[in-house]
């Protein structure tokens, strides 16, 4: 390391602040009622499989409107596609919790 850099008090202070910031982030714990994120790959697979059955599904609307998402997941259960139904069941867990990430206050 450059000895001149160590001698500069401003650089030493900046380095200390940066180190403290990193340590603080290491101690961060999510609140017990933290939000959950929908796996986007799973959602993408869902929308593609629905499209294969002639059903246009908006990923953005799925993420922004819980009722729309629940309706699309219910529609998927009525189609003769085992893979689509399995994926819909997995996604249902992310939209089912009214107090989770999919619910608007």
The average pLDDT is: 76
Radius of gyration: 23 Å
Helix content: 55-70%
Strand content: under 5%
What shape does the CA trace take?
A: elongated
String of helices and strands: HHHHHH
Description:
By secondary structure, this protein is an all-alpha fold. It has a domain at 40-96. Helices cover 66% and strands 0% of the residues. It is built from 6 helices and no strands. It has helices at 3-7, 9-26, 40-52, 59-64, 66-77, 82-96. α3 (40-52) packs across α6 and α5 packs antiparallel against α6 (82-96). The chain is elongated, with a radius of gyration of 23 Å. It starts with a helix and ends in a 9-residue tail after the last helix. The relative contact order is 0.13.
Can you summarize this structure?
By secondary structure, the chain is an all-alpha fold.
Task: Break the fold down into its secondary structure elements and pairings.
Elements: H1 3-7, H2 9-26, H3 40-52, H4 59-64, H5 66-77, H6 82-96
Region (Disordered): 1-25
Give me some keywords for this one.
105 residues, mainly alpha, 6 helices, 0% strand, elongated, disordered C terminus
């Amino acid at each position: 390391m450059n000895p001149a850099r160590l001698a500069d008090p401003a650089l030493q202070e900046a380095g200390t602040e940066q180190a403290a910031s990193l340590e603080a982030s290491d101690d961060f714990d999510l609140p017990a009622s933290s939000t959950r994120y929908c796996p986007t790959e799973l959602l993408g697979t869902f929308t593609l499989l629905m499209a294969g059955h002639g059903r246009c599904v908006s990923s953005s609307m799925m993420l922004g409107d819980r009722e729309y998402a629940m309706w699309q997941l219910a529609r998927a259960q009525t189609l003769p596609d085992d893979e689509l139904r399995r994926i819909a069941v997995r996604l249902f867990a992310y939209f089912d919790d009214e107090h989770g990430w999919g619910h608007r206050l």
